[in-house]
C-alpha cells in the first residue's frame, strides 16, 4: 500500500468517523421512566387512569400528533455545517492530487552545469 | 451532544483534512555529478575518445527490482535549452554536469548509470556505449536532499592491447 493510498484511506475514515460522531444521539438521553401498567386501577384513585378510554367521547377517536422528545437531526445547524464541510472535502479531494509536487531543481549555481531535472513529482 | 462537542468534531475534521492534504515531503532528492575520468589506468583519452561521442543517457535502477526505473533518458543541459546534449563530440566537456532526480519511493536504494555512445564502426546506423559509469546504490531518505554523488565515467568495451584495463560495458 503506497503512502498516497494510506493517506486517502485515512482521510475517508476520518470523514466517516467525524460524521458518525457528529450525528450520533446519546443512548442514555431517552431512557424511559419506570413502566406503569395503565390497566391497573388503584382503589385510591380518584381520577380516570391513563389508558382508560371513553369510547363515546370525540377526544378518544382523535389521532394524537406524534411528538418526538428530540427534534429531527436535519433541523440542527451543525448537521448542515458538517454536510457542507464533508461535501467540500470530497470535492477538493476529487479535483486535487494528494501527492504534492517535488521541489524545484536544486542542482545548479556558479560553476555547475545543471543536467536533467526529472523523477517522481516532476513534469516529464 | 453539546454544541461544544459538535464544534470540536468539526474542528477535528478540518484539522485532519488539512494535515492529510499537506503532509510531509515524500520525495528523496538525488544529485549526481557526472564527469569523465581523466586520471588512472582507465581514464578517458582526450581528444581521441571525445571525437567519437554522439550522445549520452542515464538510467536509474532500484535494488527492489531488476528492471530500470528510468531507462535511457537522454542527457541535456538545462542552461543551454531543452534537448541540448552535453555529449557533442569534441565539444563534450569533461565535467558534464549534475543530474537532479526525485523519487517517491519510501524504501530501497537507487543507483544511476550514465552511458556515452559512439557510432558502431561495424554498423553505422547503430550506437554502442564507449564510456560508462555506475554509482553505488544509495538508500532513499524521504524528505531529504542527499549529498551529491560523484559519478566518474570510464571507457568500456572489449579489452585490447591498447586498453588492457578496460571494463566491459554493462547492459
Number of helices of chain A: 3
Largest sheet of chain B: 8 strands, mixed
Main pleated-sheet profile of chain A: none
Write down the oligomeric state: heterodimer
Overall 3D form of chain A: rod-shaped
Shape of chain B: elongated
Average pLDDT across residues of chain A? 74
User: What's the β-strand tally of chain B?
Assistant: 8
Topology pattern of chain B, helix = H, strand = E: HEHEEEEEEE
Helix content of chain A: 25-40%
Number of extended strands of chain A = 1
Rg result of chain A: 32 Å
Rounded to the nearest angstrom, the distance between the terminal CA atoms of chain A is 25 Å
- What is the H/E string of chain A? HHHE
Describe, in plain words, how this protein is organized in 3D.
- The complex is a heterodimer of chains A (124) and B (171).
- With 124 residues, chain A is mainly alpha-helical.
- Chain A contains 3 helices and 1 strand.
- Chain A has helices at residues 3-23, 58-61, 77-95; one strand spanning 114-119.
- In chain A, helix 1 packs antiparallel against helix 3 (77-95).
- The model of chain A has no long low-confidence stretch (mean pLDDT 74).
- Chain B is mainly β.
- The longest helix of chain B has 20 residues, at 3-22.
- Chain B is elongated, with a radius of gyration of 23 Å.
- The termini of chain B are far apart.
- The mean pLDDT of chain B is 84.
- The interface between A and B is large, with 41 and 46 residues.
- Strand 1 (114-119) of chain A pairs parallel with strand 4 of chain B, so a sheet runs across the interface.
